[in-house]
Amino acid sequence: MSEASWKTAEFFKDAIVRDLSLECTDSFTITSFEVGKANEKTTGYMSNIYRVLIELKFDKGTAKPTSLSYIVKEKTDTAFGSGLVELMSVFPKESEVYEKLLPAFERLVQHEKETVRFGPKVLKTTTNPDTVIVLEDLSRGLFRMREKSFNLPVTDVKRILEKLAKFHAASVLYVEKNGAFSNLFAEGVISERTIDALHHNESLYSAFVQSLRDRNMAAEYLQPLIKFDGQLLRECCKAQQVHHSELKVLNHGDLWPNNVMFGTDDLRFLDFQTASYGSPVVDLLFLFATSATELMCDSLEELLQYYHEHLIKTLQHLQYCKSIPTYTELLDQMRRRSVLLLPPLSEAVAITMTGLTEPSDMEMITSEQPEGVALRKLVYNNPAYVALIDRLLPRLYELRLLK
């Protein structure tokens, strides 16, 4: 198999010029070029991810950095979820977010006292012969992911919510000034077009419900969940429909700890490949389910109030004159769309808490072979996960998020 065309020093020269804002007189030579893993594993969800290390030598003296690193996302047919890449136009969507939307959003919300950044800078995108996105390596700026892949502390969740409120508000103003987003953002991960490709979600949810039956979960908590068995994805499609009178935002679509990098005083979002236009509670429900699972038991209303306050603050700063949902209206939207909690709770949270991280684990847990059935039983009977669900379901019921 031939080496990908982007894995050459020559490919990165224009990205370097863009990154360092070089002039035509700033000539340089690449003295070292290395392609390696971006983290513990190269294969991500729907793409391959690499870190490229480069050493430069400038022909003239300069204060520009000479040790560089970049993150490369590469389209692949081998990553778990790769079947969705074409169906969801993942790379065109993410390229448009990085190239066009994030810079526009950042210009809208920045002011004299604050420069706002929502994600890494994009430095190059190509579709032929290889489809890749070259991004700023945020670790150069001392940004780091949290070690936990779920259930962050309240301080981290509030930092995410504050930045998310600004991102959502900026997207509202963008539409006011520029018109609707392109059709790339009409749908998220779960849609009528992707139901067949996401059939594994239904089998995982069925295993989750069966585990509750086996543990004799109280009927008032179990019955609302049973009615979605076999229909979860279609119900999620319905829940994402937005009434014309509701506030609509660009949702990140996959906002969990592995897609956030924290700096000392700021943070950045990663992976906009499932972004979609709709109700802000799409992002909020996914974030709460994956990043604040324990906190939902005690602090969900406080967290929602915190997001709402920052959403209002940013929209008012942007002189948005149309109706803004009240806190009560936002909570009501969450209740009407609470089925969107169930896919991440029964999949991402359960799997992550069991420590399954490899693509082969995902393939196995969705298999109907005896090994797959046994692995699902292991996941849904994990004592830590059982304790979390037993604590969470009564609270969701109390908040009317389970009715």
UniProtKB/TrEMBL annotation:
Any matching Pfam family: EcKL
Domain CHK kinase-like: 133-317
Entries under InterPro entries matching the protein: CHK_kinase-like, EcKL, Kinase-like_dom_sf
Protein name, UniProt field: CHK domain-containing protein
SUPFAM superfamilies, per the entry: Protein kinase-like (PK-like)
